[in-house]
Amino acid sequence: MADWVRRASKFLGSRGTLLALNAYPPYVAAGIRIVEVAPDASKIVVQMGLYGWNRNFFGTHFGGSLYSMCDPFFLFQVLMNLGDDYVVWDKSATVRFMKPGSGTVRAQFDMPASKIEELRSLAAGGLKVEPTFTVQVRDETGDVVAEVEKVLYIRLKRR
């Protein structure tokens, strides 16, 4: 996946690569849409409406879809901004469901340039870095439906 993202972002740019995910079959099937991407991928907004095919037995958002809408974005933000000299992987994830989600839910991923520089500096010596990032999935009223915590693995590539 990382090589595909790197190649695509060189051709399409970070914004184009991420928006192309709107055609990714699992996202189409779940009703997940990337609705906003900053040119440098420092901000990404994803939303998901509630449809017959992504509801659970109780008529609210299926938990797996809530996680799917959050899965790759912190990794993509770091990968696209650190560059080819770094290995970036997902290490772990935790999802905390706060309340049933209905209607359209949104998640906003923010990755300021200062955070990228901090990660670059920490990984510069070749040691692994395992930062934790958190995003909240909110409903149309702004209430938190779920909170997703991601731990990434980052290190400078060995030459």
Describe this structure in words.
- This protein has one domain: Hotdog Thioesterase (Thiol Ester Dehydrase, Chain A).
- It is an alpha+beta fold and 159 residues long.
- Strands 1-2-4-5-6-3 form a six-stranded antiparallel β-sheet.
- The chain has five helices and six strands, in the order ααββααββαββ.
- The chain is elongated, with a radius of gyration of 16 Å.
Write out key terms for the chains shown.
159 residues, alpha+beta, Thiol Ester Dehydrase, Chain A, six-stranded antiparallel beta sheet, 33% helix, elongated
Number of strands: 6
CATH topology heading: Thiol Ester Dehydrase, Chain A
Query: What's the alpha carbon Rg, rounded to whole Å?
Result: 16 Å
* Residue-averaged pLDDT: 89
Strand content: 25-35%
Can you tell me the CATH superfamily? Hotdog Thioesterase
Outline, from the CA principal axes? elongated
- At the first level of CATH, the class is Alpha Beta
CATH architectural name: Roll
Please identify the structural class as seen in this structure.
alpha+beta
Could you describe the largest sheet, including whether it forms a barrel? 6 strands, antiparallel
> How far from one another are the termini?
21 Å
- Side by side, the strands of the main sheet go 1-2-4-5-6-3
Q: Report low-confidence residues grouped into runs of 5 or more.
A: none
Topology as a string of helices (H) and strands (E): HHEEHHEEHEE
State the domain count.
1
Helix content, binned percent: 25-40%
Topology:
Layout: H1 2-20, H2 25-30, E1 32-37, E2 43-48, H3 63-68, H4 73-82, E3 86-97, E4 105-110, H5 113-123, E5 132-138, E6 144-156
Antiparallel strand pairs: 1-2, 2-4, 3-6, 4-5, 5-6
